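Can't paste images in this forum, so I'm doing it all in text. The chain is below; anyone willing to post the predicted structure tokens underneath?
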Amino acid sequence: MSNEDENLLAILGPTNTGKTYTAFEKLFSYSSGIFGFPLRLLARENYDKAVKKIGLSNVALITGEEKILPKEAKYFFCTVESMPKNISVDCIIIDEVQLAADYERGHVFTDRILNLKGNFITIFLGSLNIENILKKIHPNIIIEKKKRFSQLSFLRKQNFSKLEPRSAIIAFNINKVYEIAENIRTHKGGTAVVLGSLSPRTRNAQVEVYENKNVDFLVATDAIGMGLNLNINHVSFSALEKFDGRYNRNLAPNEIGQIAGRAGRYKQDGTFSHTKEAGNLDPLIIQQIETHNFDNIQKIYWRNSELDFNSINLSDHYEAYRVIDEGKNQICSWSDSLSDDGKKISYDEYTYNTTQCMDFENWIHIDKNGLGKSAFKWFCMYLKSINGRADRLEKLKRVLDDMNIPFEEGDWQTIDRDCERNKLN
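Text version of the structure:
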């Protein structure tokens, strides 16, 4: 599928194989690079390591929450969604590429696998079950397989009261995380809590509290399965199903294995179990997890990132997408339309319309990177529930970042003034 496979390397294996460490060291053997991670916390963790290794001025951090961009930065640590596309670097690394099979985020990973290449090398990190997909996309890719440093074993069902120190308890919703944390604090003493929704400062502080052994227990969501390096001896599942944004479903064996694999650091063996309330785990699934032998991924998700509507008849109203706003049951559409001066608005100059909030008099005009016009009400949908200028500003920056629009203070002043005028506080 690609003729540029000569400089592609995939380092594949289960958890605790040193994949990230190996790639981290390879990165600095090149004069510049970008490292994309599946989690903000993981990007921050490796950014901090890089700062200690080569200095603050040489390293940048780009996530949906944080942007640290020294002018002389040569190495960029990012979430996969935030990986810059307009920077030429010698080495590009993408972590946890098996997430290309994820329903929600898969298309982003697929886009990076297809379109982001380093000048000298591109490295994919992930689990063994993505191997066949990578070979189909890049037939000449070099595959390097790694074995786990330690053993992972299943223990029988355990209540929280039986858990040993240095254990992590996994829950799949925020309320349950705090409920379990309070239970552990009552019967076992202190515990740290790690959630993706926590602020960077709070999350980092919680990780530090656990790593410094100020507390012996950690309660977290399944986010820790994406490579977060913590000294965990045992992982206990409070449930074996999760709500994935559409419905409650059982965890797939590879998902359980990814999370359970956080137990055992380097050559120290790890264990995993589940509570009685979680139900039962099939012995065949337990065997798969212990041997790291999972079914191959059969499909990944992809979206066209370069849509072209130039062939559409301007006299027709073309509905490109129908999106259901689940919070309001509001049907929205991205539409091909005409600008005020009668010229066709391209896809990148799209208007975001809804059946309840069409108001072209309130459009804001932003002429950057070919964006042209963006509907004011599109921003309102994001901003109207945000109280306070500081939080609104942070949300706006994320929206513009998602749309790949450079943020400038003039934009903020215009939008903030309109927000105040429309009483969105």
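The longest helix spans residues 40-54. The two ends are 51 Å apart (CA to CA).
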